[in-house]
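Practice problem: predict the structure.
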Amino acid sequence: MSPTSGARPVVLVYDPITSVPWDYDAEREALAAAGVDLRVPATETADEHELSAADVVIVSAPFPTRLLSRLERCVGIICYSVGMDSVDAAAAEAARIPVTNVAGYCTEEVSDHALALLLAAWRGIVPFAVSAAQGDWDVYDSRPFRAIRRLRGRRVGVVGLGRIGSRVAAKAGGFDMEVVAHDPYLTESPVQGVELVTLEELLRSCDAVVLCSALTSSSRGLIDADRLKLMKPDAVLVNVARGGMVDEAALAEALKSGAIGAAALDVRAQEPPPADDPLRSLPNVILTQHVAATSRESHADLHALAAERALELLRRAGRLSQPAAVAG
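Answer:
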């Protein structure tokens, strides 16, 4: 459809967020200003008729691969997140439908949360806070108390040196930690003073490992039983990427046996985890509920950037006129 055919392009939210108070008013306003309609189904997911009429589709949870064939007009799918694992990339490519994300909206928040988890694990914040809330101050001969070490000079390994990983590396450096990184897609480090090393070297040498990679076919199960065995017995594993990067059964065994010291996880392979979650009851585990990306500022950026991505896809496909040049 050309921009002059009369019909307005449609951006469809396939699966509206209902788990928290959420609206799409900001996206609707930004898109309307460019002559684009936003449609949000009243049901849990859009139906096949709505999908067939959409020019761009926004997805929050995994999108059924079988429905790609119903996207008759679609010029792009937007994952309403930084991660792009909600869409089968190979199937979308075969269907010639571009897939993009909302990169950059929560870089500061996720990197902040990664450092917060790491500091909480190293400083014993959670057990001390729980004991204090119970009126217990007899902690000076406890394991968390004896385990505390100085932050300066400790070696942190960042797996995935993209936007978020680079900020984790820079912020860890601000605590005078030594930082190395592994990223199979890079030949040079984008962060000054951060050396790129092999994954095996990183796991063997670091006091903490922070996972910041995208979940792909090659990174799924990256931290398995064999790689956990490479880590130091007092090392901390922090995951703010995707739960599928870690073999959680192997991690539970490593934590129980003392093969590694602790884990601090914001993301899980299954969310929420099952009732028999083996990690939930372990004293050397800190869990948060996939909240690393959250702040009032990041939510505002998510709305604005999602609308921008939709307009980019429409312009690239010729469904929307290019913005007028500003006179010099």
